[in-house]
Write a structure and sequence with these properties.
This protein is an alpha/beta fold. The chain has 2 domains: 253 residues, TIM Barrel; 74 residues, no CATH class. 35% of the residues lie in helices and 16% in strands. It is built from 12 helices and 13 strands. The strands form 3 sheets. Strands 3-4-5-6-7-8-10-11 form an 8-stranded parallel β-barrel, surrounded by 6 helices. The protein has a 3-stranded antiparallel sheet with strand order 9-13-12, with no helix packed on it. It has a two-stranded antiparallel sheet with strand order 1-2. α1 runs parallel beside α2, α2 runs parallel beside α3 and α5 runs parallel beside α6. The longest helix is centred in the first third of the chain and has 19 residues. It starts with a strand and ends with a helix. The structure holds flavin mononucleotide (FMN).
């Protein structure tokens, strides 16, 4: 397969985006290696400052931009001509700043989810070469974004990621009770988004399918069903280059299908994770009587009423290797991880490069 993927002014050799994985699961090392192999590598900006040399336990908002610049630099050292982007979550308090810092540091695209990125064109107006890619789970969400961007800024998304709430990892853009109900039609949504832009604006924008793509068969299926590319995250966790701790990767290797499920995140969105230790994740913040340490989310039930637990620090603990009280996000396919591999080996399998 020789199909490439062009998003805005940037063309990747292979139609693959490595999905952003927050709180340093996809940092500069993973993103850089994916870009070097010919895909698009994304550094997740959410909580990137935690577990960086810039964080002193109190300065979340100062550490985040400094750490982000370090990670972008690191990624470009690995892949000087590669396509490096960031994943920015609309729901986080410092969304605007992380978008601007990404542009200043030279990313080629911004993929934005966990909310509708209505102000993204205005934040990036000084960097027209940076491609803008919202993540949605419905045609309706794509329409809302497109209308607002077009009316306000004469701009349309350069691509759209359509994320499947029934399979993707991390925070999900669908109501908890609807997930897994069988109502959601992922590739119908992919084709619907594509048709919407064609019919309403006369443009063909790339639509990328995210969620549940694990191997070459899944990739070929996605392309056959109308996607222009895929975004994959869980598959990259058990690579040598992934920025998570060894214990985090081991938790993927050890988990079974039955361990993966849904929980309500204090961010007000459902999330998919390894559920084995979720009671310990919750109990930890009760035992330590922690109060909201960072204020990282715009809306947070933990910040507002100490309900449940602090999500960003739970994800951070797991990233560092505390898989007892840390939260491990994953997609429904994570149980398929059976060894630590390399990013190149993943590309070899996906694109049949070792013939
Ligand atoms: C560990 C983990 C962390 C994630 N963090 C984020 C994030 O910070 N922002 C985001 O938009 N999506 C996040 N996601 C979603 C992925 O980017 C991706 O769209 C999705 O997981 C794709 O499904 P797959 O894991 O089956 O390949 C995360 C996924 C995982 C597995």
């Amino acid at each position: 397969m020789t199909r490439s993927l062009t998003i805005g002014r940037h063309t990747a050799r292979f139609p693959l985006i490595q999905g952003g994985m927050g709180v340093r699961i996809s940092g500069g090392n993973l993103a850089g290696h994916v870009a070097r192999c010919g895909g698009i590598g994304l550094i997740a900006t959410a909580g990137i400052g935690l577990n960086s040399p810039h964080y002193d336990g109190r300065n979340f908002f100062t550490a985040d931009p400094l750490a982000l610049k370090d990670e972008i630099r690191k990624a470009y050292e690995i892949a000087p001509d590669g396509i490096i982007g960031t994943n920015c979550m609309v729901a986080v308090t410092n969304f605007d700043e992380m978008v601007r810092v990404s542009c200043e540091a030279g990313v080629k695209l911004i993929v934005a989810g966990a909310g509708l990125p209505m102000n993204l064109p205005e934040l990036t107006a000084d960097w027209p070469e940076v491609a803008l890619v919202p993540i949605v789970s419905s045609v309706k969400a794509a329409e809302l974004i497109a209308r607002k961007w077009h009316k306000g800024h004469g701009r349309l998304p350069d691509a759209i990621v359509v994320e499947d709430p029934d399979t993707a990892g991390g925070h999900l853009g669908e109501k908890l009770e609807k997930i897994g109900s069988g109502e959601y039609d992922h590739y119908g949504t992919v084709r619907g988004v594509k048709a919407y832009f064609r019919e309403s604006f006369g443009v063909e924008i790339p639509v990328i399918a995210a969620g549940g793509v694990w191997d070459r068969a899944d990739l070929l299926h996605a392309l056959k069903e109308g996607a222009d590319g895929v975004q994959m995250a869980s598959r990259f966790v058990c690579t040598k280059e992934c920025d998570a701790s060894d214990a985090y990767k081991q938790a993927y290797l050890d988990c079974g299908k039955e361990d993966i499920g849904l929980l309500m995140s204090p961010a007000g969105l459902p999330g998919r994770a390894i559920l084995r230790n979720v009671e310990q994740v919750r109990q930890r913040d009760v035992d330590f009587d922690v109060i909201c340490p960072s204020g990282c989310l715009k809306k947070c039930t933990y910040k507002a009423g100490q309900e449940r637990f602090c999500i960003v620090h739970a994800l951070d603990r797991a990233q560092r290797g505390d898989v007892d009280t840390g939260l491990i996000f994953c997609g429904t396919n994570a149980w398929k991880s059976d060894r630590i591999t390399t990013v190149q080996e993943v590309f070899d399998e996906l694109f049949d490069l070792k013939k």
